[in-house]
Specification:
Arc Repressor Mutant, subunit A; 3-stranded antiparallel beta sheet; 69% helix
């Protein structure tokens, strides 16, 4: 017995969700680049490190960013070259690498945060209004 196929209307809703996500992410990225010369991808790394007390193992960071380990390594390489983060050996296992937020990275994050948060409010949460709680409940139920 096969599962029922989604309706045409459901598929259209799915497509709108994907398109909206892409438009919002691109707009947020564009604002950060224009105002702070910082990509959304780099902002996310800085934020993930700051929220974790300034450091995370590379595998934890990759998981938090929802990217592969190899993509995380390349991303952190570029940010390390820019002086925003650095990699250090792990304390328990010297083979493990830990990404560490540097003061320059913390300053860039602090400077860019208002732009990013205002963008989220303008492009997403502000548009939801009273529906925000319902959307949040829906998203929390997703696998």
């Amino acid at each position: 017995m096969s599962a029922p196929n989604p309706s045409t209307e459901s598929l259209a809703t799915w497509r709108r969700w994907l398109e909206a996500h892409t438009r919002i992410v691109n707009a947020l990225d564009g604002e950060l680049r224009a105002r702070h010369d910082l990509s959304l991808e780099w902002y996310d790394v800085l934020l993930q490190l700051a929220e974790a007390g300034g450091k995370r193992t590379m595998s934890e960071l990759a998981d938090a960013l929802l990217i592969s380990r190899s993509n995380c390594t390349r991303l952190v390489d570029r940010m390390e070259n820019a002086g925003l983060v650095e990699r250090r050996p792990g304390q328990q296992d010297q083979r493990e690498r830990v990404a560490v937020l540097l003061p320059a990275g913390r300053r860039r994050l602090r400077a860019a945060a208002p732009t990013h948060l205002q963008g989220i409010e303008r492009l997403f949460t502000g548009e939801l209004g009273r529906d925000a709680a319902a959307v949040d409940r829906f998203l929390r139920r997703l696998p």
